[in-house]
């Protein structure tokens, strides 16, 4: 299994390739807010562990293994964003919070959160009920 840091790189590389068709070291460095030399080091590690290959003209190419895990990581990120959105987390906090938790949950927890998200998406009136509880709690907090 990739480490949390490897996961961040594979996730970003997968996103860049899906969105732009390629992933350059400079783009990865910018997206992850790290130094390009750190990217080069990690890319070599990911190459050694056969998540990707560096090809002279095409640049970084994910292997089948890299693509599979990359898609899973991007889907996990999206799911957790939907989850935080549904439970009413402020939009400004969502991205950073997902980045903070995504590597630290078991796939078991991710799958069960997936069920919960599906439940709320299939019964949107439950989201309205949850909102009422939130409003009540926020009013109580505000009046304390
Ligand atoms: Mn992420």
Overall mean pLDDT score?
94
CATH topology of the largest domain: Diphtheria Toxin Repressor, domain 2
Gyration radius, to the nearest Å? 19 Å
Provide the β-strand percentage band.
5-15%
Major beta sheet, strand line-up:
1-2
Structural class: mainly alpha
The counted number of beta strands is 2
Tell me what the CATH architecture of the largest domain is. Answer: Orthogonal Bundle
Shape: elongated
Residue ranges: pLDDT <50 for 5 or more in a row? none
CATH superfamily of the largest domain: Iron dependent repressor, metal binding and dimerisation domain
**Portion of residues within helices:** over 70%
Q: What sequence of helices (H) and strands (E) makes up the elements?
A: HHHEEHHHH
How would you characterize the overall build of this protein?
The protein has 144 residues and is mainly alpha-helical. The protein folds into 2 domains: 4-69, Arc Repressor Mutant, subunit A (Orthogonal Bundle); 74-143, Diphtheria Toxin Repressor, domain 2 (Orthogonal Bundle), CATH 1.10.60. The protein has 7 helices and 2 strands; from the N terminus they run αααββαααα. The chain has helices at residues 4-20, 25-32, 36-48, 64-86, 91-101, 107-122, 124-143, and strands at residues 52-55, 59-62. It has a two-stranded antiparallel ribbon. The longest helix is centred in the middle third of the chain and has 23 residues, at 64-86. It is elongated and about 60 Å long. The mean pLDDT is 94. Manganese (II) ion binds next to α5. Residues 1-63 form the HTH dtxR-type domain. Mn(2+) 1 binds at residues 8, 99, 102-103. Belongs to the DtxR/MntR family. Keywords: Activator, Cytoplasm, DNA-binding, Manganese, Metal-binding, Repressor, Transcription, Transcription regulation.
């Amino acid at each position: 299994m990739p480490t949390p840091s490897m996961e961040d790189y594979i996730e970003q590389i997968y996103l860049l390739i899906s969105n732009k068709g390629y992933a350059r070291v400079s783009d990865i460095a910018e997206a992850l807010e790290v130094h390009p030399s750190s990217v080069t080091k990690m890319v070599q590690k990911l190459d050694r562990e056969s998540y990707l290959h560096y090809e002279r003209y095409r640049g970084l190419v994910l292997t089948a293994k890299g693509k599979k895990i990359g898609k899973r990581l991007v889907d996990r990120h999206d799911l957790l964003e939907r989850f935080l959105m549904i439970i009413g987390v402020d939009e400004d906090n969502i991205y950073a919070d997902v980045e903070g938790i995504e590597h630290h949950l078991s796939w078991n927890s991710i799958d069960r959160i997936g069920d919960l998200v599906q439940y709320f998406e299939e019964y949107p009136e439950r989201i309205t009920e949850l909102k009422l509880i939130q409003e009540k709690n926020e009013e109580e907090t505000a009046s304390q």
